[in-house]
């Protein structure tokens, strides 16, 4: 796993073997078995390349080390005693690192709890009321009518009936609008008494 993390790329059994043989003598089958076991446990993934496999790390080195420690602790008959013994083997720097890790984990949990509580409370109380706008927008219809009045020089009527002309029933004083009966009657009167007007003036 150290080589897989260090190279940070898919590796073959042959590549790992050649690198390990610089430090000690080791067999090809040993490296192949170790990588196969890591694959079975889910720590590495592999893809076939010809007749061999290329292995790639699934998790980080820190997660792998944490899993190993958890397995060892869970297999102990007395977990508390195992922790005390483990702390006793730590250096001052390691103990300080452990204290820092505990504070980080506790702070992360508190932050998650507060976040969940805040969202739950907000959802229960409903959406907060919004402040009214300083200048509320006018309806689009009224604005359009006012703009139309300014462009044409006309002012919209305040009441729908103001612009409608009133019907009075009177006939306009024009020759075209005079009733046909009255015109005919006037003509007949003139024909019957052609001298009535003159006689009146004579008297």
Automatic annotation (TrEMBL):
Pfam families: Penicillinase_R. Residues 128-162 have a biased composition (Basic and acidic residues). Keywords: DNA-binding, Transcription, Transcription regulation. Residues 114-127, 174-188 have a biased composition (Low complexity). One of its GO terms (biological process) is negative regulation of DNA-templated transcription. GO terms for molecular function: DNA binding. Residues 109-203 are annotated as: Disordered. InterPro entries: BlaI_family, WH-like_DNA-bd_sf, WH_DNA-bd_sf. The keyword Transcription regulation applies. Belongs to the BlaI transcriptional regulatory family. This is BlaI/MecI/CopY family transcriptional regulator. The lineage of its organism: Bacteria, Bacillati, Actinomycetota, Actinomycetes, Kitasatosporales.
